[in-house]
Amino acid sequence: MKARVTVTLKAGVLDPQGQAIEGSLKSLGFGGVASVRQGKVFDLVLDGTDEASARSELNSMCEKLLANTVIENYSVEITN
């Protein structure tokens, strides 16, 4: 089973890397970019076929390691 975890900064949290990317895009001539927020994507391959237990395990992984839940949100997508 495959899963994708997407981690993004919560609204209101400053994103200096996103701002740097935005500035670089503008300096490269991409003037139509109003704002950039950066995040992280984790692609995982999991043993087993039980989607409910996999989702529970993935949420635990996010809460303990993959996301800083004080300043980040995460979403879990499971594909077979």
Distance between the termini: 5 Å
Q: Could you tell me the number of beta strands?
A: 3
**Superfamily (CATH H level) name:** Phosphoribosylformylglycinamidine synthase subunit PurS
Which structural class do the helices and strands define? alpha+beta
Largest sheet: 3 strands, antiparallel
Shape: elongated
CATH architecture: 2-Layer Sandwich
Task: Report the top-level CATH class.
Answer: Alpha Beta
The low-confidence runs, each spanning 5 or more residues with pLDDT under 50, are none
Count up the helices. Answer: 2
Radius of gyration: 16 Å
β-strand percent reads 25-35%
Which strand order does the major sheet show? 2-1-3
Report the order of strands and helices.
EHEHE
Q: What fold name goes in the CATH topology slot?
A: Mth169, Chain: A
- Average residue pLDDT: 96
Query: Helix share of residues?
Result: 25-40%
Count of separate structural domains: 1
Task: List key phrases describing it.
80 residues, alpha+beta, Mth169, Chain: A, three-stranded antiparallel beta sheet, 2 helices, elongated
Would you mind describing this structure in some detail?
With 80 residues, the chain is α+β, with helices and mostly antiparallel strands. The chain has a single domain, classed as Phosphoribosylformylglycinamidine synthase subunit PurS (Mth169, Chain: A, 2-Layer Sandwich), CATH 3.30.1280.10. It has two helices and three strands; from the N terminus they run E-H-E-H-E. It has helices spanning 16-27, 51-66, and strands spanning 2-9, 39-45, 72-79. It is elongated. The mean pLDDT is 96.
